[in-house]
Amino acid sequence: MSYADTAQSSLDRAIQRVPERYRVYLPIIPVMTLVGLFILYPIAQAIYSSFFEKNLLRPGDAEFVGLANYQEIVSNPDIHEVIVNTIIWVVVGSGAAILIGFVVGWMLYEKIPYVSVASAIVLIPWVLPRVVGASIWQFMFSGSQGIINELLLQLGFINEYVVMLGSTELSLYPPIVGMIWRLAPLFALLTLTSLQGVPDKLYEAARMDGATPYEQFRYITLPMLKYPLAIGFLLMLIYNIRNFSMVWVMTNGGPGVSSSTLPVMIYRTAFVDFQVGLASALSMLLFVVLLIFSYYYIKVYNRIRGDT
Amino acid sequence: MATDTSETPAEFRRNESWLFDSRVGNLLRQGGLVITGLLIGIFLLFPLYWMIVTALKTTAEIQQIPPTVFPVDPSITGFVTVIESSLQTAGIDTFFENLLGVEISSAIDINVLGNIYNSLFVAVGAGIIAVLFGSVAAYILSQRDFWGKNGIMAVLLASLMFPGTAIMVPEWELFSTLGLYNSKLGIILLYGAMTAPFVVWLMKGFFDDFPTSIIDAAKIDQCTPFETFRYVLVPMARNSLIASFIFAFLLAWNELVFALTLLNQENFTVPPGLLTFVQGFNTQWNVVAAASIIISIPVLIGLAYIQRYFVQGLTGGAVKG
Known about the structure:
The structure holds 2 protein chains of 2 kinds. Chain A is mainly α. Chain A has 14 helices and 2 strands; from the N terminus they run αααββααααααααααα. Helix content of chain A is 71%, strand content 4%. Chain A has a two-stranded antiparallel ribbon with strand order 1-2. In chain A, helix 5 runs parallel beside helix 9, helix 5 runs antiparallel to helix 11 and helix 9 packs across helix 11. Chain A starts with 9 loop residues before the first helix and ends with a helix. Chain B has 2 domains: 37 residues; 203 residues, Orthogonal Bundle (MetI-like fold), CATH 1.10.3720. In chain B, helix 6 packs across helix 12, helix 7 packs across helix 9 and helix 12 packs antiparallel against helix 15. The mean pLDDT of chain B is 82. Classes of the chains: A mainly alpha, B mainly alpha. The interface between A and B is large, with 118 and 113 residues.
């Protein structure tokens, strides 16, 4: 790389003083500093804290307890319930969001006019501030004036209003419904974009060879959509497992821990019970799961970039 | 054209199934499609309708059981309450009372306009930091090969995946140590750090596809790499840069966990501001809905602009729109 020898400003001269080999790293330093300080360092700190018994209000007297916090995770029945809740969230929430999202995306592509306007409207649930979406659903699920109770009553499913958000058995599900509402549009848009990206000539060729529309879908559309949909699938898992606001706004994770997922439990352990060590150990659990998802995300990502 | 048979010329093969061959099957299929579409459409759009309708109801109508699907007596009390109580909380109500000649009194303690101001400040700051730092790094990561490049990209992507909830305790400790607790600067830097990796991925996708001939031409014209970046790439990447900015802005606008734990009431951004009101005693839902609509407006404007870039952004450029 040849530098023009008219470099005059002090910044330029400072840059010149850096050896050529390392100069390439200069533009990356600001980003890495920010990310390092505000994201990577806290991650390291969380790993460290997970081996200590520590109270949030008295950060001074931390006591090294080895793996005791992890043993607590294994033995505490509340945490077991939270883990089961999280699994239900991820399976039900992602499954439904993907199903609904795919149908909507396909319909937008195939059946609905004014695609760009329609998809912008469909996308609103996803872009609304999360707290806004969650409070709408909280109001709709409300036990005293909720429209959903009224709907279920009219349809004959229930005989009187049910306080779903305050019930130990039911409180897990309203936030999942809200989350499906928020995530399905995202998957729909992903599907739509991927469908638009399939070249028309593939279908033309297939029709010439006598493929039925179903066969075209099965042998052209789906294979072409494999990686984009894999990305969408991973995004759904990731967003579901790290969701905090939908649960926190609607139920605070309660009653008890009946509607808590892992992120909500971490918040409660740290900022309600002040047990920093246990919260950090729970964070590690979340980290590991997300690391696995991220690994596959990067893999699929590179596959897509490699293809084009 | 996946399963749409209506436009297919007769000589092409059609699906071989009773669902497509018989009259009954066709009706069943079409009907099923319409019903599914309607149900999903209601599921996705009804909450939005409900928010608007709720905002237009009076406080008395909100408490009716069963709830009214169409507002009987549309009113803008909710919006008025939001604005009045904001002015009151901010302590500038007397000024407006004198100015407009109306009396401002509100029993509710919600400062939505103040929260919006905080949010705007924080979101614009975070957006600028993310775009400045992110795009420069993306340029180098895209154009040059050097040791550790893939590692850096992986770290940046992984940092995007990690949930705020998992690091909020150490983040809280870090903010206390640095004296950034309850400061807008701190939260701006944090949001910048959270969105810059995203900008890197988005802009790297753009720079990767950028024709090398233009960069070569700039080189031949004796441009330094910085000049190439500043005078050739930035103008051509304008739209992507604006989209990146809006993404960063929206993230900061929507973020709840850190705003809740790292700020105090007077510096609250929109999400924790609304949350404390929703979870307060005796929630007036028409006011909540009105506040919700007000704070959603910037997001909807942003959406209109970046819709084209949405998928690209969400998937870090992996899926192109």
